[in-house]
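Listing S7. Sequence submitted for prediction.
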Amino acid sequence: MHHASDILLSLFIIFVAAQIGAELASRLKLPGVVGEIAAGCLVGPSVLGWIAPNEPLEVLAEIGVVLLLFSVGLETRLDDLKKVGRSALLVGVLGVAIPFALGSLWAHTSGFDWSKSLFVAAAFVATSAGITARVLQELGALQRVESRVILGAAVIDDILAMLLLGVVVALQAGGEIKIGHLAVVLLEAVGFLAIIGWVGTRVMRRGSQWLERPANPLSPLTIVLAICLGLAYLSTQFGLAAIIGAFLAGMIASETRQRETLEHQTQPLLALLTPFFFVLTGSKIDLAELANAEALWMLAVVTVIAIVSKFIGGFFGAYSLGKRGASIVGVGMVPRGEVGVVIASLGLSAGVFSPRIYAVIVAMSLLTAMVTPPILAWQLKRS
Protein backbone atom coordinates (compact mmCIF):
# COMPACT_ATOMS: atom_id res chain seq x y z
CA MET A 1 0.00 0.00 0.00
CA HIS A 2 1.25 3.47 -0.83
CA HIS A 3 2.18 5.52 2.20
CA ALA A 4 -0.25 8.38 2.80
CA SER A 5 2.48 11.02 2.99
CA ASP A 6 3.98 9.88 -0.34
CA ILE A 7 0.59 10.10 -2.01
CA LEU A 8 -0.04 13.57 -0.58
CA LEU A 9 3.36 14.74 -1.83
CA SER A 10 2.57 13.38 -5.32
CA LEU A 11 -0.78 15.16 -5.29
CA PHE A 12 0.93 18.40 -4.31
CA ILE A 13 3.55 18.10 -7.06
CA ILE A 14 0.99 17.22 -9.74
CA PHE A 15 -1.38 20.01 -8.79
CA VAL A 16 1.30 22.70 -8.60
CA ALA A 17 2.96 21.49 -11.82
CA ALA A 18 -0.41 21.59 -13.59
CA GLN A 19 -1.08 25.16 -12.48
CA ILE A 20 2.38 26.35 -13.54
CA GLY A 21 2.15 24.50 -16.87
CA ALA A 22 -1.32 25.89 -17.61
CA GLU A 23 -0.22 29.42 -16.70
CA LEU A 24 2.85 29.26 -18.96
CA ALA A 25 0.77 27.83 -21.79
CA SER A 26 -1.79 30.63 -21.42
CA ARG A 27 0.98 33.25 -21.57
CA LEU A 28 2.21 31.61 -24.77
CA LYS A 29 -1.35 31.82 -26.17
CA LEU A 30 -1.79 28.04 -25.97
CA PRO A 31 -4.65 26.07 -24.35
CA GLY A 32 -3.93 25.21 -20.71
CA VAL A 33 -4.18 21.47 -21.39
CA VAL A 34 -0.93 21.65 -23.42
CA GLY A 35 0.93 23.03 -20.42
CA GLU A 36 -0.55 20.38 -18.11
CA ILE A 37 0.52 17.51 -20.38
CA ALA A 38 3.99 19.03 -20.79
CA ALA A 39 4.23 19.44 -17.01
CA GLY A 40 3.47 15.73 -16.68
CA CYS A 41 6.37 14.87 -18.99
CA LEU A 42 8.68 17.06 -16.90
CA VAL A 43 7.80 15.81 -13.40
CA GLY A 44 7.28 12.20 -14.52
CA PRO A 45 9.77 9.31 -14.45
CA SER A 46 11.45 10.26 -17.74
CA VAL A 47 12.84 13.64 -16.62
CA LEU A 48 12.72 14.71 -12.97
CA GLY A 49 11.17 11.53 -11.57
CA TRP A 50 9.19 13.39 -8.93
CA ILE A 51 6.03 11.35 -9.55
CA ALA A 52 5.26 7.90 -10.93
CA PRO A 53 1.82 6.75 -12.10
CA ASN A 54 0.26 4.48 -9.49
CA GLU A 55 -3.20 3.25 -8.59
CA PRO A 56 -4.29 6.12 -6.28
CA LEU A 57 -3.22 8.71 -8.85
CA GLU A 58 -4.88 6.76 -11.68
CA VAL A 59 -8.14 6.72 -9.72
CA LEU A 60 -8.03 10.49 -9.24
CA ALA A 61 -7.21 10.96 -12.91
CA GLU A 62 -10.19 8.79 -13.89
CA ILE A 63 -12.51 10.79 -11.63
CA GLY A 64 -11.13 14.00 -13.13
CA VAL A 65 -11.85 13.03 -16.74
CA VAL A 66 -15.28 11.63 -15.76
CA LEU A 67 -16.21 15.00 -14.23
CA LEU A 68 -14.81 16.82 -17.26
CA LEU A 69 -17.05 14.90 -19.65
CA PHE A 70 -19.98 15.35 -17.29
CA SER A 71 -19.50 19.13 -17.44
CA VAL A 72 -19.25 18.95 -21.24
CA GLY A 73 -22.53 17.03 -21.28
CA LEU A 74 -24.11 19.80 -19.20
CA GLU A 75 -23.49 22.14 -22.12
CA THR A 76 -24.84 19.71 -24.72
CA ARG A 77 -28.50 18.98 -25.41
CA LEU A 78 -29.82 15.84 -27.07
CA ASP A 79 -31.79 17.87 -29.62
CA ASP A 80 -28.58 19.62 -30.68
CA LEU A 81 -26.83 16.29 -31.22
CA LYS A 82 -29.74 15.00 -33.28
CA LYS A 83 -29.29 17.86 -35.72
CA VAL A 84 -25.77 16.70 -36.54
CA GLY A 85 -26.43 12.95 -36.31
CA ARG A 86 -25.64 12.13 -39.95
CA SER A 87 -22.38 14.10 -39.96
CA ALA A 88 -21.34 12.65 -36.59
CA LEU A 89 -21.98 9.11 -37.86
CA LEU A 90 -19.88 9.67 -40.99
CA VAL A 91 -17.07 11.26 -39.00
CA GLY A 92 -17.13 8.43 -36.46
CA VAL A 93 -17.04 5.66 -39.09
CA LEU A 94 -14.45 7.23 -41.41
CA GLY A 95 -12.41 8.37 -38.40
CA VAL A 96 -12.06 4.72 -37.37
CA ALA A 97 -11.77 3.00 -40.75
CA ILE A 98 -9.04 5.20 -42.29
CA PRO A 99 -6.64 5.25 -39.28
CA PHE A 100 -7.14 1.50 -38.79
CA ALA A 101 -6.36 0.73 -42.44
CA LEU A 102 -3.27 2.97 -42.61
CA GLY A 103 -2.05 1.83 -39.19
CA SER A 104 -2.34 -1.83 -40.25
CA LEU A 105 -0.37 -1.21 -43.45
CA TRP A 106 2.39 0.64 -41.60
CA ALA A 107 2.71 -2.07 -38.95
CA HIS A 108 2.77 -4.87 -41.54
CA THR A 109 5.42 -3.13 -43.65
CA SER A 110 7.42 -2.65 -40.42
CA GLY A 111 7.68 -6.42 -39.93
CA PHE A 112 4.62 -7.39 -37.89
CA ASP A 113 2.45 -10.28 -39.02
CA TRP A 114 -1.14 -9.37 -39.83
CA SER A 115 -2.67 -10.33 -36.47
CA LYS A 116 -0.15 -8.18 -34.60
CA SER A 117 -0.46 -5.42 -37.21
CA LEU A 118 -4.18 -5.18 -36.50
CA PHE A 119 -3.46 -4.90 -32.77
CA VAL A 120 -1.00 -2.08 -33.42
CA ALA A 121 -3.55 -0.37 -35.69
CA ALA A 122 -6.17 -0.43 -32.92
CA ALA A 123 -4.03 2.13 -31.06
CA PHE A 124 -4.51 4.54 -33.98
CA VAL A 125 -8.29 4.46 -33.82
CA ALA A 126 -10.07 6.01 -30.84
CA THR A 127 -10.22 9.77 -30.33
CA SER A 128 -9.67 11.13 -26.83
CA ALA A 129 -12.88 13.03 -26.16
CA GLY A 130 -11.46 14.43 -22.91
CA ILE A 131 -8.68 16.44 -24.53
CA THR A 132 -10.74 17.95 -27.34
CA ALA A 133 -13.64 18.64 -24.97
CA ARG A 134 -11.32 20.54 -22.60
CA VAL A 135 -10.10 22.78 -25.45
CA LEU A 136 -13.64 23.43 -26.70
CA GLN A 137 -14.73 24.24 -23.16
CA GLU A 138 -11.81 26.60 -22.53
CA LEU A 139 -12.66 28.50 -25.73
CA GLY A 140 -16.39 28.62 -24.99
CA ALA A 141 -17.05 26.78 -28.26
CA LEU A 142 -19.19 23.86 -27.08
CA GLN A 143 -22.32 25.34 -28.69
CA ARG A 144 -20.83 25.43 -32.19
CA VAL A 145 -22.13 22.90 -34.69
CA GLU A 146 -18.58 21.57 -35.25
CA SER A 147 -18.26 20.86 -31.53
CA ARG A 148 -21.49 18.89 -31.50
CA VAL A 149 -20.30 16.83 -34.47
CA ILE A 150 -17.00 16.09 -32.71
CA LEU A 151 -18.71 15.02 -29.48
CA GLY A 152 -21.28 12.88 -31.28
CA ALA A 153 -18.57 11.29 -33.41
CA ALA A 154 -16.46 10.59 -30.31
CA VAL A 155 -19.30 8.46 -28.89
CA ILE A 156 -19.61 6.48 -32.15
CA ASP A 157 -15.83 6.28 -32.31
CA ASP A 158 -15.73 4.67 -28.86
CA ILE A 159 -18.27 1.97 -29.81
CA LEU A 160 -16.40 1.06 -32.99
CA ALA A 161 -13.04 1.09 -31.20
CA MET A 162 -14.44 -1.29 -28.59
CA LEU A 163 -15.59 -3.73 -31.29
CA LEU A 164 -12.27 -3.51 -33.14
CA LEU A 165 -10.33 -4.19 -29.96
CA GLY A 166 -12.46 -7.28 -29.34
CA VAL A 167 -11.65 -8.54 -32.84
CA VAL A 168 -7.89 -7.98 -32.65
CA VAL A 169 -7.61 -9.49 -29.16
CA ALA A 170 -9.40 -12.63 -30.42
CA LEU A 171 -7.09 -12.83 -33.45
CA GLN A 172 -3.98 -12.37 -31.35
CA ALA A 173 -5.10 -15.11 -28.95
CA GLY A 174 -5.64 -17.47 -31.85
CA GLY A 175 -9.38 -17.60 -31.28
CA GLU A 176 -12.06 -17.27 -33.91
CA ILE A 177 -14.09 -14.13 -34.38
CA LYS A 178 -17.69 -14.74 -33.34
CA ILE A 179 -19.82 -12.43 -35.46
CA GLY A 180 -22.91 -13.20 -33.38
CA HIS A 181 -21.16 -12.20 -30.17
CA LEU A 182 -19.88 -8.95 -31.70
CA ALA A 183 -23.38 -8.15 -32.98
CA VAL A 184 -24.81 -8.65 -29.48
CA VAL A 185 -22.12 -6.41 -27.98
CA LEU A 186 -22.86 -3.72 -30.57
CA LEU A 187 -26.61 -3.89 -29.94
CA GLU A 188 -26.08 -3.71 -26.18
CA ALA A 189 -23.87 -0.62 -26.49
CA VAL A 190 -26.19 1.16 -28.93
CA GLY A 191 -29.24 0.18 -26.86
CA PHE A 192 -27.62 1.53 -23.69
CA LEU A 193 -26.86 4.88 -25.36
CA ALA A 194 -30.31 5.14 -26.93
CA ILE A 195 -32.28 4.26 -23.81
CA ILE A 196 -30.26 6.44 -21.44
CA GLY A 197 -30.14 9.36 -23.86
CA TRP A 198 -33.79 9.25 -24.94
CA VAL A 199 -35.53 8.16 -21.73
CA GLY A 200 -33.24 10.06 -19.37
CA THR A 201 -33.67 13.42 -21.07
CA ARG A 202 -37.45 13.08 -21.10
CA VAL A 203 -37.61 12.12 -17.44
CA MET A 204 -35.49 15.14 -16.50
CA ARG A 205 -37.53 17.55 -18.61
CA ARG A 206 -40.73 16.56 -16.82
CA GLY A 207 -39.50 15.98 -13.29
CA SER A 208 -36.43 18.11 -12.58
CA GLN A 209 -38.21 19.71 -9.60
CA TRP A 210 -37.56 16.56 -7.53
CA LEU A 211 -33.87 17.48 -7.47
CA GLU A 212 -34.74 20.24 -5.00
CA ARG A 213 -36.91 18.20 -2.63
CA PRO A 214 -34.12 17.12 -0.22
CA ALA A 215 -33.31 19.62 2.56
CA ASN A 216 -29.68 19.92 1.49
CA PRO A 217 -29.33 23.10 -0.64
CA LEU A 218 -26.72 21.30 -2.77
CA SER A 219 -29.05 18.39 -3.47
CA PRO A 220 -29.36 19.07 -7.24
CA LEU A 221 -25.57 18.78 -7.55
CA THR A 222 -25.19 15.74 -5.32
CA ILE A 223 -28.02 13.88 -7.08
CA VAL A 224 -26.72 14.49 -10.60
CA LEU A 225 -23.18 13.58 -9.50
CA ALA A 226 -24.57 10.28 -8.21
CA ILE A 227 -26.23 9.77 -11.60
CA CYS A 228 -22.90 10.62 -13.28
CA LEU A 229 -20.95 8.02 -11.29
CA GLY A 230 -23.68 5.42 -11.76
CA LEU A 231 -23.84 5.86 -15.54
CA ALA A 232 -20.03 5.93 -15.76
CA TYR A 233 -20.01 2.52 -14.08
CA LEU A 234 -22.83 1.19 -16.29
CA SER A 235 -20.91 2.30 -19.39
CA THR A 236 -18.00 0.09 -18.43
CA GLN A 237 -20.38 -2.86 -18.04
CA PHE A 238 -21.44 -2.41 -21.67
CA GLY A 239 -17.82 -2.26 -22.85
CA LEU A 240 -17.78 1.51 -23.28
CA ALA A 241 -15.46 4.05 -21.68
CA ALA A 242 -16.63 5.49 -18.36
CA ILE A 243 -16.50 8.98 -19.86
CA ILE A 244 -19.34 8.08 -22.25
CA GLY A 245 -21.68 7.43 -19.31
CA ALA A 246 -20.51 10.65 -17.66
CA PHE A 247 -21.21 12.59 -20.85
CA LEU A 248 -24.72 11.09 -21.02
CA ALA A 249 -25.32 12.03 -17.38
CA GLY A 250 -24.36 15.62 -18.10
CA MET A 251 -26.56 15.68 -21.19
CA ILE A 252 -29.50 14.42 -19.12
CA ALA A 253 -28.83 17.04 -16.43
CA SER A 254 -28.69 19.77 -19.10
CA GLU A 255 -32.47 19.34 -19.51
CA THR A 256 -33.17 20.50 -15.95
CA ARG A 257 -34.06 24.05 -14.94
CA GLN A 258 -31.03 23.99 -12.59
CA ARG A 259 -28.62 23.64 -15.52
CA GLU A 260 -26.79 26.96 -15.08
CA THR A 261 -26.48 26.45 -11.33
CA LEU A 262 -25.03 22.98 -11.88
CA GLU A 263 -22.50 24.34 -14.38
CA HIS A 264 -21.37 26.92 -11.83
CA GLN A 265 -21.19 24.43 -8.95
CA THR A 266 -19.08 21.89 -10.89
CA GLN A 267 -16.32 24.39 -11.69
CA PRO A 268 -14.43 24.03 -8.36
CA LEU A 269 -14.51 20.23 -8.72
CA LEU A 270 -13.08 20.50 -12.24
CA ALA A 271 -10.37 22.91 -11.10
CA LEU A 272 -9.26 20.42 -8.45
CA LEU A 273 -9.50 17.08 -10.26
CA THR A 274 -9.08 17.43 -14.04
CA PRO A 275 -5.39 18.47 -13.84
CA PHE A 276 -4.55 15.01 -12.46
CA PHE A 277 -5.74 13.37 -15.67
CA PHE A 278 -3.68 15.54 -18.00
CA VAL A 279 -0.51 15.52 -15.88
CA LEU A 280 -0.71 11.72 -15.50
CA THR A 281 -1.19 11.41 -19.27
CA GLY A 282 2.02 13.35 -19.85
CA SER A 283 3.97 11.38 -17.23
CA LYS A 284 3.49 8.04 -19.02
CA ILE A 285 5.96 8.61 -21.82
CA ASP A 286 9.35 6.90 -21.48
CA LEU A 287 11.82 9.22 -23.21
CA ALA A 288 14.71 6.75 -22.73
CA GLU A 289 13.14 4.38 -25.28
CA LEU A 290 13.11 7.19 -27.83
CA ALA A 291 16.73 8.29 -27.36
CA ASN A 292 18.00 7.18 -30.77
CA ALA A 293 17.49 8.15 -34.40
CA GLU A 294 15.66 4.97 -35.41
CA ALA A 295 13.04 5.31 -32.68
CA LEU A 296 12.58 9.01 -33.38
CA TRP A 297 12.09 8.32 -37.10
CA MET A 298 9.52 5.64 -36.27
CA LEU A 299 7.75 8.06 -33.92
CA ALA A 300 7.66 10.75 -36.63
CA VAL A 301 6.17 8.37 -39.20
CA VAL A 302 3.58 6.97 -36.77
CA THR A 303 2.55 10.44 -35.61
CA VAL A 304 2.12 11.71 -39.17
CA ILE A 305 -0.01 8.66 -40.05
CA ALA A 306 -2.11 9.15 -36.90
CA ILE A 307 -2.71 12.85 -37.56
CA VAL A 308 -3.33 12.66 -41.31
CA SER A 309 -5.61 9.61 -41.16
CA LYS A 310 -7.86 11.07 -38.45
CA PHE A 311 -7.95 14.45 -40.13
CA ILE A 312 -8.98 12.92 -43.47
CA GLY A 313 -11.72 10.85 -41.82
CA GLY A 314 -13.08 13.84 -39.89
CA PHE A 315 -12.78 16.24 -42.83
CA PHE A 316 -14.64 14.13 -45.37
CA GLY A 317 -17.15 12.92 -42.80
CA ALA A 318 -18.08 16.53 -41.98
CA TYR A 319 -17.73 17.94 -45.50
CA SER A 320 -21.38 19.02 -45.47
CA LEU A 321 -20.38 21.73 -42.96
CA GLY A 322 -18.16 23.39 -45.57
CA LYS A 323 -14.40 23.26 -45.86
CA ARG A 324 -13.68 25.39 -42.80
CA GLY A 325 -16.14 23.53 -40.56
CA ALA A 326 -14.92 20.16 -41.85
CA SER A 327 -11.33 21.20 -41.15
CA ILE A 328 -12.21 22.08 -37.53
CA VAL A 329 -13.89 18.68 -37.08
CA GLY A 330 -10.92 16.91 -38.66
CA VAL A 331 -8.47 18.53 -36.27
CA GLY A 332 -10.78 18.01 -33.30
CA MET A 333 -10.79 14.25 -33.91
CA VAL A 334 -6.99 13.92 -33.97
CA PRO A 335 -5.95 13.48 -30.28
CA ARG A 336 -5.63 9.90 -29.04
CA GLY A 337 -4.62 10.61 -25.46
CA GLU A 338 -5.48 8.00 -22.86
CA VAL A 339 -7.16 5.64 -25.33
CA GLY A 340 -3.98 4.95 -27.27
CA VAL A 341 -2.09 4.56 -23.99
CA VAL A 342 -4.56 1.92 -22.75
CA ILE A 343 -4.34 -0.10 -25.97
CA ALA A 344 -0.53 0.16 -25.96
CA SER A 345 -0.52 -1.15 -22.37
CA LEU A 346 -2.67 -4.12 -23.42
CA GLY A 347 -0.27 -4.82 -26.29
CA LEU A 348 2.76 -4.69 -24.02
CA SER A 349 1.24 -7.05 -21.43
CA ALA A 350 0.16 -9.44 -24.19
CA GLY A 351 3.69 -9.55 -25.62
CA VAL A 352 2.60 -7.96 -28.91
CA PHE A 353 4.63 -4.77 -28.42
CA SER A 354 8.29 -4.44 -27.53
CA PRO A 355 9.15 -1.69 -25.02
CA ARG A 356 10.22 0.51 -27.95
CA ILE A 357 6.98 0.05 -29.90
CA TYR A 358 5.07 0.67 -26.69
CA ALA A 359 7.00 3.91 -26.11
CA VAL A 360 6.40 4.99 -29.72
CA ILE A 361 2.64 4.35 -29.51
CA VAL A 362 2.37 6.14 -26.15
CA ALA A 363 4.48 9.05 -27.42
CA MET A 364 2.31 9.25 -30.57
CA SER A 365 -0.82 9.39 -28.41
CA LEU A 366 0.64 12.17 -26.30
CA LEU A 367 2.01 14.12 -29.26
CA THR A 368 -1.36 14.13 -30.97
CA ALA A 369 -2.84 15.31 -27.66
CA MET A 370 -0.31 18.16 -27.47
CA VAL A 371 -0.33 19.20 -31.14
CA THR A 372 -4.11 19.38 -31.52
CA PRO A 373 -5.14 22.00 -28.91
CA PRO A 374 -3.18 25.00 -30.27
CA ILE A 375 -4.21 24.23 -33.87
CA LEU A 376 -7.84 23.76 -32.88
CA ALA A 377 -7.80 26.97 -30.84
CA TRP A 378 -6.33 28.90 -33.79
CA GLN A 379 -8.95 27.51 -36.16
CA LEU A 380 -11.86 28.32 -33.88
CA LYS A 381 -10.66 31.87 -33.21
CA ARG A 382 -10.06 32.41 -36.93
CA SER A 383 -13.55 31.28 -37.86
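Caption to Listing S7: primary sequence and predicted C-alpha coordinates for the chain studied. The radius of gyration is 20 Å. DSSP finds 16 helices and no strands in the chain.
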